[in-house]
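Q: I'm building a small set of examples for a reading group on sequence design. Run inverse folding on the following structure and report the sequence directly after it, with nothing in between.
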């Protein structure tokens, strides 16, 4: 066997001095180069690592094949924050990963690993998580407390309105109307807190999409065209059918609202297909395939850049009167289903992609 040799000359001094573990990954996703910091991180010599499948030696808790493919296709770098990285027998280390196609050959990828030191890790990511949690807890409590007095206000306004002259009655009606809107908003907050664990069973994805589509077309998406581009042979997924439909409905709703707000875009495309290359580390630590892909694609204005990085966080919204809970709920449901959601958005084309597992062998319905 001929030894694996890198065809990509690297300025040796820079490479050796880089204080972060770095790898060059060839077009076949095999390791083509490792710097000295990388050798220490992987606890192996560069000679023994070269030519090895990169993600065999380096288990990263994110769909890396997809990330690399995207970096190559777009010829642009990509950042993946707060992922667990495992090498060999070692316990996972939380890291930020940077992936960049090489300047002169986009097929070759530079991958830099920045391990987050313990203090930073405990400090920041925990505080983000608990901030989100306590924000939701607080909002739930407030929602509950505000609903009672609101009912009183609305009732009093209705009574007042009955004895008023027509021109003043409008004002009383306004109070009633606005109170109703607040109650609706509060109910959404409460619903978020009440999400039950999924009751999973084999589900036909197209049935769930159809339900969402029909419900959207008679309501908020009546002004849109929703087209179906399905792979009819797509096998079932293992999910809670109601929660799955809720995910699709939320995504369609966001698309419809963004298009309407901007007066741009008229079409939502529902696209399903099979792609075996996407793998995530499952609960048992072993890679689990997420081959069922569902994309909700719109031709609207795109996600506002100032909130793009945070749209899955609760209470982040780019629209007036938005609670910002839609996508937080979607991402919670998807992660309860051990799936993955990603988004790609430029003006004129926004794609939310949901990736789901198949039915586990022991859960298949006996026929
Ligand atoms: N398809 C899309 N096109 C453009 N922007 C989008 C799209 N989907 C989401 N967004 C942006 O992401 C924000 C967050 O969405 P999310 O569903 O979490 O909250 P919301 O729609 O504002 O409120 P809620 O869903 O709770 O009523 C939206 O306000 C919008 O600015
Ligand atoms: Mg929404």
């Amino acid at each position: 066997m001929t030894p694996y040799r890198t065809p990509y000359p690297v300025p040796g001094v820079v490479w050796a001095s880089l204080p972060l573990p770095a790898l060059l990954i060839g077009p076949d996703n095999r390791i083509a180069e490792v710097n000295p910091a990388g050798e220490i991180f992987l606890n192996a010599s560069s000679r023994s690592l070269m030519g090895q499948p990169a993600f065999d030696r380096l288990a990263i808790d994110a769909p890396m094949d997809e990330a690399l493919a995207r970096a190559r296709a777009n010829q642009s770098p990509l950042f993946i924050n707060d992922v667990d990285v495992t090498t060999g027998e070692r316990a996972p280390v939380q890291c930020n990963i940077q992936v960049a196609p090489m300047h002169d050959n986009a097929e070759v990828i530079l991958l830099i690993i920045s391990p987050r030191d313990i203090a930073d890790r405990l400090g920041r990511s925990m505080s983000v998580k608990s901030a989100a949690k306590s924000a939701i807890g607080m909002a739930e409590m407030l929602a509950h407390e505000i609903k009672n007095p609101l009912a009183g206000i609305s009732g009093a306004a209705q009574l007042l309105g009955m004895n008023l002259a027509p021109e003043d009655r409008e004002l009383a009606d306004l109070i009633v109307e606005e109170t109703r809107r607040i109650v609706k908003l509060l109910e959404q907050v409460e619903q978020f807190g009440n999400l039950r664990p999924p009751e999973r069973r084999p589900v036909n994805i197209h049935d769930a999409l159809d339900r969402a589509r029909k419900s959207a077309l008679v309501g908020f998406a009546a002004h849109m065209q929703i087209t179906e581009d399905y792979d009819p042979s797509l096998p079932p997924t293992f999910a809670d059918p109601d929660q799955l439909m809720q995910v699709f409905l939320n995504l369609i709703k966001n698309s419809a609202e963004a298009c309407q707000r901007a007066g741009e875009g008229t079409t939502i495309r529902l696209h399903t297909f099979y792609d075996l290359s996407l793998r995530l580390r499952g609960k048992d630590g072993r890679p689990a395939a997420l081959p069922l892909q569902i994309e909700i694609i719109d031709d609207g204005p795109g996600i506002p850049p100032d909130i793009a990085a945070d749209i899955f966080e609760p209470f982040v919204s780019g629209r007036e009167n938005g609670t910002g809970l839609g996508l937080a709920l979607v991402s919670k449901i998807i992660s309860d289903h051990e799936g993955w959601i990603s988004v790609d958005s430029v003006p004129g084309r926004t794609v939310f992609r949901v990736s789901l597992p198949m039915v586990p062998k022991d859960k298949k319905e006996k026929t």
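The chain has ten helices and 15 strands.
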